[in-house]
Amino acid sequence: MRNTNFSGQFALPLYMAKWLIIAGIVAVLAGSASAFFLVSLDAATAWRESHRWMIWLLPLAGFAVGLIYDLLGKTVDAGNNLIIDEIHDPHNVVPLRMVPLVLGGTLVSHLFGASVGREGTAVQMGGALADQLTHVFRMEHADRRILLMAGISAGFASVFGTPLAGAVFGLEVLLIGRMCYDALFPCVVAAIGAHLVCLAWGAQHTHYAIGEIVPLGLWNALAVAIAGVVFGLVGKMFATATHKLGALAKRFISYAPLRPALGGIVIATAVWAFDAYHYIGLGIPDIVRSFQQPMQPWDFLGKFGFTVMSLGTGFKGGEVTPLFYIGATLGNALAPLLHLPFAMLAGIGFVAVFAGAANTPIATTLMAMELFGPEIGPLAAIGCITAYFFSGHTGIYRAQRIGHSKFN
């Protein structure tokens, strides 16, 4: 027993020193990539907003991105799912080409007006950059799995400015109903480090103010739970619709570059016909507005439709920021019916729809506390956990597996 304890005392410092160095390198790589991405994304968004005619070039942009991926990116086209699959069943190091391809594809999508997010890009860059260390440190499968999880955490944390949520997201997103605690220390180090590196480069994150937070009482808890049911069902509908449209597009349009080209025609025409410019891109101004004033009750549906069309036809980016938009505007619309402050319920919807769509209730609860303040934690937990249960086992990440059923 003494020998075991003695060896363990030396093993722990060595383990921590090893992962402190490796996760620190991941943090520098992912945080720097996210900073460059965020600054570039702001520039692309500003250019598009001052040149609205760019939307008519979206079909050509979609064809160009689709063609590049068809020629050079077939091995990385699975995106986030490729990273998650490699964690579950390690086979090959993620090609470094994923980084410039997803970065360029996402910037082009935003520049010309697709409704996509940014989480997918950051996670893919973080995971791919981290995986390049596999050969450098000659890692076995077990350590490579942890390395990839650290890359996911670093990318997520740095792109949203939420280090705690990012750390837990890398642990929670792989398996529904289970957390992978063996990677806890590396993910925390990578997430916090990447966040600090991103800030050091001068990247900016949006700050949200939601004002009044009602006390945790019986009615308020019940009202948030009722809203959570709606948030979970909408998250499930989003994931299902995106997957089904993607499958239909592949079934009826065999030539991959034509899918985003045709999707771009539909999006550009709809934006022009309905004057729906506020539904494209990230939609940050409308998210901020949902915390400040009542929104139109159909805004969440508009963003839902444009995002499903964009992602389902092959534009690159992510799902999360559009889900923030959908959740915030939906919460804003539900607030008067439930007699809750619209800004507070918009904040809970912001994270809860994502919690349901991604099956990550713990990470999203932490995100609410990091973005809106710790006082919202109990009510955000109620909304996120309720949404998680009512979204079923459908999710935006196909490679996500069921570790433990939600209903057993």
From TrEMBL:
One GO CC term on file: membrane
Pfam families in the record: Voltage_CLC
Keywords: Membrane, Transmembrane, Transmembrane helix
InterPro entries hit by this protein: Cl-channel_core, ClC, ClC-type_chloride_channel
CDD domains recorded: ClC_sycA_like
GO molecular function, one term: chloride transmembrane transporter activity
Membrane topology type: Multi-pass membrane protein
Membrane-spanning parts: 20-41, 53-72, 146-171, 183-204, 216-239, 260-280, 300-325, 337-358, 378-397
Tree of life domain: Bacteria
Subcellular location as annotated: Membrane
Protein name: Voltage-gated chloride channel protein
Species whose genome carries this gene: Duganella alba
Lineage: Bacteria, Pseudomonadati, Pseudomonadota, Betaproteobacteria, Burkholderiales
